[in-house]
Structure formats: structure tokens, C-alpha cells
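C-alpha cells please, single chain.
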Amino acid sequence: MFFIYYAKKVFNSAYYPLVRTYARLFLKDRPADPLLRGMCAIAFLVVYHYWPDFVRPRRFGEKLWSRMLLSRHPLLTTISDKLLVRDYVAKKAGADHLIPLLWSGDKPEAIPYDRLPDMFVIKTNHGCQYNILVTDKARADRRAIGAKLKKWLAENYAEDAHLGIIWGYKNIKPVILIEEFIDDHGQPPTDYKFYCFSGRTELITVHFDRYKVPRSVSVDRDFVKLRFRPRFKQQDIDPPKPRNFAAMLRLAEALAEGFNFVRVDLYSLQDKIYFGELTPYPVGVGYFRSFDIVSLDETLGEKWGSNPEWV
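Here you go.
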């Protein structure tokens, strides 16, 4: 067990940079060539334990990676950009579902701390896990925050992370966003992630304590608990069904319209629904398996449609 764990760490630290370098030098904005697909197939084999077909994908994992490697639809950039997606959501579902934006800009030193509330969230728009929670402005280390933001702004998440193939992030102009801190009694709210296929939710993962010890539970569209785990260990708890779950389901499916597959993240606080993000590349982008059950990988792969007019 330990041998496999460390073997994968060595593989990730050595092989992933090699693939990223090739993608950066030779891929540009073109769909992946046969060599890059072959290099990624080796990484996929390590993650999923079967050899993929990216040209004629059948399972969910294959289709997810095929999208990263081959799809160059401009809408993938729009919804991956955490600033541009706000306009997209406002047009599709209304601006009242957006977390209030307090400030945006591209220079950390321009952040107007004196005009900000005591609690807020700083993030950048061009990747994943670029988030800073400020729960007490008076105690915030502004110099450290600025240094971290400058580091993030200098990165290209598509080229510098994982295998360097998450194309939707490649052409995003990095920007800092500061949003209102929406909280549930001082803690980040429960995160509801709707996996939508051809505009229909087939699965929801409910995430708790995301910034402490992450826990998650998976349920179906009727909010009945499922017996598998997507990333975190399935918890032996039954999450309370939000009173406005039917409205959340409608909103998720409205935002998912026009996509063969997309994940829609929502929050519910005091019966008000807030938009989190639209994710065309959720889970399994390199370091962990998307789903632990092979049958689920196959089932969701079948639900991932192939409408050529959709993304």
C-alpha cells in the first residue's frame, strides 16, 4: 500500500511536469495531438486503472479527459472565468443569485481594505483553490495576502497545474475578486454540487467543513443518500434536505442547459440560493479518481450526451 502511494507521488512529480512541458510547447490552443493523448493515457491508466479511448470515449472519466484534451468551445473559457461567469449566470438566472462582488482589479496593492467589511473572501478568477478567507480584517496579514496573490496572478492554471491540459483556463486574464463573506453561523456554508447531464441533475454531492476537515455525502436528485464516494470518504450522516431544494434543482438545471455535462455549485442560506460556480472539469483532473465505483463511471458516461450543438 505504501509502495503504491509513494510510487504515484514519484510518478506525479516526474511525469506530470514532462507532460505539462510538452503541452505548453506544442499544444497551444489546438486539440491534443496523438502523442499528447498517449502521454495522458498513461497518467489516466494510473488514476483509473484502465486504458482510455479519448477519441471515442464511453465512460465518464474518459469523456471528462476527452473534453480537456479535445474540446475548444469558447464557452468553456467563459464559465471557467470566475468573473465572466457572473454575467453568464445573471443573464441565465438573474443577478440576485450572485454573491455580492465588493471589488475587482489586477493589482493586490490596490485592494481598498479600508472600504471593505470585517469579513470577505479574496479569490482570483483563473483557476482552482485560489481563495483566501478573511474572517477578521484587523488581523489580516496584508503583506502575505499580497505576496500570495502576486504568485497566483503570475500562474497560468491550464499550463502550470496537473497535466497542463485543462484548456478552459488557458486564456483567462487573471483578475482579483473580492466577494461578500456568506456564512452559516460564522462558518463557510454547505456546498451543494449538482452533476447535470443534458440539463438534468443525476447526482448531488453535499460538502461540509470545506476549509477544515472536508466531508461529503452523495445523494440522488430526490435527495436520497447514495452508497459511493466521489472524492472524500462518504460520511455516515444524513444531510438535511434544504427547504428550497426544489428551487435549487430548477436553478441548477437552468444553468446546465446547453451542456452535455457540467457541474453546478450552489449554496442555500436562510432559503436564499447563491451561485458558487459552473465547472466543466470537476474531479479527477489528475491526482485522484473521479468515482470509485466502475459501474457509476459507466452509468454517468452513458448519461453524458453527445449533442453536437451543446458543449
